[in-house]
Design a protein that fits this description.
Blueprint (H helix, E strand, L loop, with lengths): L1 E8 L4 H10 L7 E8 L10 E3 L11 H12 L3 E5 L4 H11 L4 E5 L6 H5 L2 H18 L3 E3 L3 H10 L5 E2 L4 H4 L5 H15 L7 H15 L10 H8 L3 H13 L3 H10 L36 H10 L5 H18 L5 H13 L4 H10 L3 H15 L14 H11 L3
Parallel strand pairs: 1-2, 1-4, 2-3, 4-5, 5-6, 6-7
Helix pairs in contact: 2-3, 3-5, 9-10, 9-12, 11-12, 14-15, 17-18
Length: 407
């Protein structure tokens, strides 16, 4: 793992540079690069520093271009910003985040209550309004120096991903600083696990869900190439799959797929990994096909009065669609709901012309088409099982984002 540390050197933060050089030492697992920016503060230019200031730049080359050139040359897993109240650090955060790099933040006691209260209205409050709050809010993780700073950051509530990395074990020498920070970085990666998925990982995960939710006797549950890809998965990839499976309440589906394919359950999936809690956890209940979750009297009347007693599959399908829409509005749509709906669509015996009329009356015809597209992408639903024609538009993209959102 590679980390690019950044610090703006001022009279207040100059002592941090010595601390960073002492504690952030590269080893086999953690390669660390230190970048500094300064104006008017003498800094000894050693080989371990990347200096970003006017004296090192070619004429006409902007700060952003110089930083981005280093960013892409190093390609770090994290950009770690040290020290608060620096507008240039805020710009570094934006330049990194806008290019897809993870950014974490260590204020080193500069967000403690005593520091905040010192000339609050003259200095702190304007900077909070201009950039400091936005900067903290967008960080993947924030390291508090001690319990006092942790409590202050918790009270502010700008970012819930708070940790005290330099604990007593680290300070006593039982654990090295590199090991402590490595665990913290891994915690962030495990929390944002979906972002580590490649297109092949996504295809393999969807193939497992299809295997678990498609009847055994069905024609071509998976292609031979898809089966081969699943058999070649590595233990770290299986761990990623089961982490996401637990988040979306489909862990039992993944185990069922392994059983059907007669694959051994990897030992890595049982390992406990530290993670931050999702801001909006996914709903783990089964998708109801009996009761409407939004309790709309108008929709209940249409379902009760216009659907014949012999058309129970149609009624169940419409209720599930309405409940899917409800879960999207509540931001707790999970893969389990998609799997429940997939099994219903495959098993339903419905007059598609009458269903189309009811969907129009319930105002969910376009939504149903979007869900067919989602089922095709996630569980490879065949065209012959689709109850309406699929639709891929902006609304479909909203559903995709609702499935994977963590914030």
């Amino acid at each position: 793992m590679k980390i690019l540390h950044f610090i703006t050197i001022t009279p207040a933060t100059a002592p941090l540079l010595k601390e960073l050089r002492a504690t952030h030492v590269s080893d086999e697992q953690l390669e660390q690069v230190l970048m500094v920016y300064y104006r008017g503060v003498p800094v000894r230019r050693d080989a371990d520093l990347i200096v970003l200031n006017p004296q090192t730049a070619r004429i006409g080359m902007s700060y952003e271009r110089r930083f981005v050139s280093v960013l892409y040359e190093e390609m770090p897993d994290f950009v770690h910003i040290h020290g608060a109240w620096s507008h240039f650090a805020y710009r570094i955060y934006l330049w990194s985040k806008n290019r897809g790099f993870r950014v974490v933040f260590s204020p080193h006691g500069m967000m403690d209550k005593k520091v905040l209260d010192d000339r609050f209205w003259q200095q702190r409050f304007p900077r909070i309004l201009l950039y400091q709050r936005r900067m903290l809010h967008g960080m993947r993780g924030v390291e508090a120096k001690n319990e006092s700073e942790y409590r202050q950051l918790s009270r502010l509530g700008w970012n819930k991903r708070l940790d005290i990395v330099m604990t007593g074990d680290v300070l006593s020498g039982e654990v090295s600083p590199s090991e402590a920070y490595l665990e913290w970085y891994r915690k962030i990666i495990h929390t944002d696990i979906y972002e580590t998925f490649t297109q092949r990982d996504k295809a393999n995960f969807c193939a497992l869900l299809r295997t678990a939710n498609t009847p055994i006797g069905s024609h071509k549950v998976l292609t031979p190439q898809a089966i081969l890809n699943l058999r070649e998965l590595t233990p770290p990839t299986w761990r990623k799959f089961f982490i996401l499976g637990r988040d979306h309440h489909v862990e039992s589906h993944l185990r069922k797929a392994l059983e059907r394919m007669q694959l051994p359950i990897p030992s890595t999936i049982e390992e406990d990994v530290a993670r931050y809690a999702w801001k909006e956890p996914k709903n783990g209940d089964a998708l109801s096909d009996v009761e409407l979750l939004d309790h709309s009297k108008r929709l209940s009347a249409i379902l009760d009065n216009k659907i014949k007693s012999s058309e129970q599959d149609m009624r169940r399908l419409c209720i599930m669609l309405l409940n899917l829409r409800h879960h999207i509005k509540e931001s707790d749509l999970s893969m389990r709901h998609i799997c429940d709906f997939y099994r219903m669509v495959r098993a339903a015996d419905i007059d598609e012309n009458r269903l189309s009329d009811f969907l129009e009356e319930l105002s969910i015809h376009r939504f149903a088409r979007r869900m067919m597209q989602i089922l095709h992408e996630v569980l490879y639903l065949e065209e012959g099982y689709m109850v309406v024609e699929p639709l891929d538009d902006i609304g479909t993209e909203t559903i995709r984002k609702a499935l994977i959102t963590q914030e």
